[in-house]
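User: Please predict the structure of the protein below. I'd like the answer in structure-token form so I can feed it into my own downstream comparison script.

Assistant: Understood. Taking the following sequence of 292 residues as input:
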Amino acid sequence: MKNLPHLVAFLVVATWGTTFVFTKLLLLGGLTAAQIFMLRFIIAYVLLSGYCLFRGIRWLSDSWRDELLMAALGITGGSLYFLTENSAMNYTTTTNTSIIVSLCPLFASAIIGAFYKSERLNRVQVIGTLMAALGVVVVVMNGHFVLHLSPRGDALAFAACLCWAFYSLLMIPANARYDTVFVTRKVFFYGLLSMIPYYILHPGLNIRLLVVQPQMVWNLLFLGCVASMLCFLAWNWVLKQLGAVVATNYVYLNPVTTIVFAWLLLGEPITLWFLLGTSLVLVGLFLADRKQ
């Protein structure tokens, strides 16, 4: 099915767009952002490891260089990305963070194009990705075109943006040499391993909160089983099928799906600015996928 990778990319981004609700509930329940990351990645890694044991999938890379590549993927797409993105929220506004992080396809296109000539955008694709980026700004700002600059918070959000861009870049050689399940399991493993220094300084996972508030377990299971394990597997497969640049452009849909989800479940209004921004994003994505 020719359009299956595009459909999967949309579903993954749509799912990631809903995670703010589940994460917010866990934060309100008393867990920290770092604890949520650790618990959801532990769940994903345990489940995926069980599958790999059952299927007899290899555990080590072919060389130490490839193992370092897997470690870099776990850091850029796991620990460092989540820490910088969540920490940014403590120093800057949600609007600033959403805009900066959602613009990562722009940086990913530039970085990947610098390393891979075959992945460079043509003129139509450049226009498309810029149009989609403008659409994201319109959606997130929602008619209130005022940014409150915060150097520390905005720098952290920008760091998260670069982390995801480099994750997309590093996935190109990883996908060329290894199976998607193997790579994804390595991302979870090294994402968890690279968090050890943080937990030396800030120990504890607050498991007791899950005991006294069992409703939080379901939110965590969704984040671990669906938003982490299944979505990372699907996303890494999409990167292999569509190429890193085309796949990463779907990140532009993240704030769109978030607002739609908030409208469906929380009753938040859909505005004219949202419809205009969404139209720009959709047209931009169409143009960004044009090969000629």
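That's the full token string. The first helix runs from residue 4 to 28.
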